[in-house]
Amino acid sequence: MIANVPEIRISQAQPQPELGSPEGPRPADPALAEVSAVRSFLLSRGNSAIADRGFQWLMVLCALSIFGIVVLIAVELVLRSQLAWSKFGFGFFFSAFIDPATRLPMYWDPVNGHFSALPFLYGTLVSSFLALLMAVPLAIGVAVFLTEMCPRVLRGPLAFLTELLAAIPSVIYGLWAVFVLVPLLREHVNPLLIRLLGWTSLFNDDNPTGLGFLAAGVILAIMILPIISSLTREVMTAVPHSQREAVLALGATRWEMIRMGVLRNARIGIVGAVILGLGRALGETMAVTMVIGNSPEIHRSMLANGSSMASVIANEFAEASSDLHTSALMELGLALFVVTIIVNALARVLVWAVTRGAPAQVH
Amino acid sequence: MRYGDQRVGEYKLTTEHKMRARIRALTDGAATGLAVLSTLLVVAPLVAIFVYLVYKGASSLSWAFFTKNPAPVGEAGGGMANAILGSGILLGVGSLIGVPVGISGGIFLAEFGRGTKLANAVRFTADVLNGVPSIVMGIAVYSLIVVPQRHFSAFSGGVALGIMMIPTVCRTTEEMLLMVPHAVREAALALGVPNWRSVLSITVKTASPGIITGAMLAFARVAGETAPLIFTAFGSPNWSVALNEPIAALPLQIYVYAISPYDEWHRLAWAGALVLIVLIVLAVSLVRYVTSRGVLKGAS
Asked: Touching check for A66 and chain B: CB below 8 Å?
């Protein structure tokens, strides 16, 4: 299991006998006398094998704690969601309770104890999809500009700016979205969308607040952009220069070189970067909670209020009305955990497949 | 072989060729334009956010913001002194847990486990754990610590933040240690220094600027986390330093104030956001400055 580092064994596992013994009387040679002085000093401090073993095991233990954390999270979530699981089973994710009086589906009704994850699955998927739709072309554009076109002087500052975008906390994005983005959407963008694209029934004017799926999608797009673009950049830099030179030598224009020489070679990694961005978008909580509108309903309109898996947990967990309610929220959390683990694992495998040979770098 | 002045296979530029060349040039120009445009579109919200933050936040910042606790609803004044202190305590507890464990994990990956299956699995798990939503961390720590204890506490919030720091610190430490030349390790071992001592005082010390960078990045990342604190640290209107009581935190307070209906609280939310972002940007810029000066000064 644990690798033995070859250089280390030599110096420690072999104590006295080798040094000096073939060389005849030791004290005659001053250099050797000095060596043995160092050696006897080291020996006087005792055998370090135990300390070494202990140190190594301590490090292994810390590394293993990462597995421990994942297992612990999974076990806790599974245990605490037992109640909802035994009551609803798989139906939690597929079915809805139909209200006998109004014949309308009731998805999330803590008062009467009906819980279904459908509106949250829908909200999470729709807002993440909108975010990807906006962020992916922009992120690839930025990555292309920064790696292939940008003057060297601008590259550093621009890369830093996009990284800064990743460092802004999600609650500040939310604050900005509530006070700047949502009014902007409400006053200018939404009326335009309704007028131009109202016929698709994807945009209608039922909701005058400006909150909703679109607002969540836009803020998510801004938030996942730096992740996608920095990974895309990394993948594109990993494409060997000879590829670019070969395509250019055939007389390609710069765009043709980027398309055929770079993007084509980096496509698997770019897909990985996009999936990683998706993973972030699925689990993003605060900013989405502040702008999605928070109602457990399914609407076709992108301008309607909705709710995502993360946002409903953030909103209701602290004041859950019953054990079943808590348990249902835990099950949503478990679903989110499993989905993001799968999505992230997939993304990592894809990105690794491309950048494996490239030198390590810190993001 | 000579052809004299007779040309072989004369190449004529037909109109079709010219058209194609023009189309290709136009496509090239359009692609460049689109790339520039998207870069501008990405920088725009960043600038917008910063301008707004500074504009709104600076006008609300005052001495009272740093020295007073939140005022009751309807009363003017008040500040976020308790939230700033609370964030400091939470981050302190988080760093105490996250940084040592993360660095040790990184040491294992780079020094002992290089190339083994176990190390690959740990590395992969760390990367995946990095992508687990913070709200999931929040409810996991809630059911792990808050439920058995039966009350919200600063300690549980610190644990949540610490857990979130581990994968980042671990991976950056590993990457930094991998950059330390082998000769440095060999020199230490050849002098008869025990392995643990060589790792700690030679390898880790050589890579320490980079490791500190990684720790600060992780710190900056969790400093703004709100979601894992909602059900663990919970927030509090009072000045509190006790680890087993609910405690206020800057991001949490910003969230509560932002979704409140009071203008006075909105003002404070902007001021809090400005303070938070200045702290984070300072940390990130410092990191950037240190890395750009050469991560491994001692090694080269």
From this structure: yes
* Nearest-angstrom CA–CA distance, B149 and A200: 53
Distance CA A191, CA A127 (A): 20
Residue A322 has a CB neighbour count (10 Å cut-off) of 12
pTM score of the predicted model: 0.85
In chain B, where the domains are located: 15-60, 67-292
CATH of domain A82-355: 1.10.3720.10
For chain B, 300 residues long, the average pLDDT of each consecutive 10-residue run is 51 77 92 93 88 89 85 77 92 94 94 90 92 93 92 93 94 91 88 87 88 87 91 87 90 91 88 91 78 52
**Domain B67-292: top CATH class:** mainly alpha
Could you give the CA distance from residue A303 to residue A203 in angstroms, rounded to a whole number? 6
Is some CB atom of chain B closer than 8 A to the CB atom of A153? no
The span from the CA of B291 to the CA of B274, in Å, is 25
Q: Is B32 on the interface with A (CB under 8 A)?
A: yes
The closest CB to that of A286, out of B186, B223, B226, belongs to: B226
Q: Which residues of A touch B248 (CB under 8 A)?
A: none
ipTM of the complex model: 0.86
The answer to whether A14 faces chain B, any CB pair under 8 Å, is: no
Q: Which candidate in B109, B135, B175, B213 is best for mutational testing of the A interface (most A CBs within 10 A)?
A: B135
